[in-house]
Amino acid sequence: MTLMDMTITMDNILNLLHSIPLTTSNKQWLADHLYEEVMAEKKATDNAATGWPKVSREDLQLSPDVMKLVEDIEPLPDSFDYDKAKFEYLMKKYG
């Protein structure tokens, strides 16, 4: 029987890994590398499906320079009425 003829389940792979005396750092290294491969494959699949790269949360992070400009801005309350504020602004400007 060749390796190509063998059927290996994910449980068997996990059992094999548990039988090997891996240190915590070895396990972390393996997990990190598997995760990187999964993310690269997902990104390639997403890009191929849409033709556009998927934007991640990390892509949307503000630079420290921009953060300094907006750090004191308070978020608008949930009750803020944008249409009313726009109307009042236009009435003051043109009314």
Give a quick summary of the entry:
With 95 residues, the protein is mainly alpha-helical. It contains four helices and no strands.
Topology:
Layout: H1 10-19, H2 24-50, H3 64-70, H4 82-94
Question: What is the overall pLDDT average?
Answer: 83
Question: How far is the first residue's CA from the last residue's CA?
Answer: 87 Å
Q: How large is the share of residues in beta strands?
A: under 5%
The shape is: elongated
Write down how many β-strands occur, each being a DSSP E stretch of 2 or more residues.
Answer: 0
Characterise this structure.
The chain is mainly alpha-helical. It has one domain. The chain has helices at 10-19, 24-50, 64-70, 82-94. The longest helix has 27 residues, at 24-50.
Which key terms come to mind for this protein?
95 residues, mainly alpha, elongated
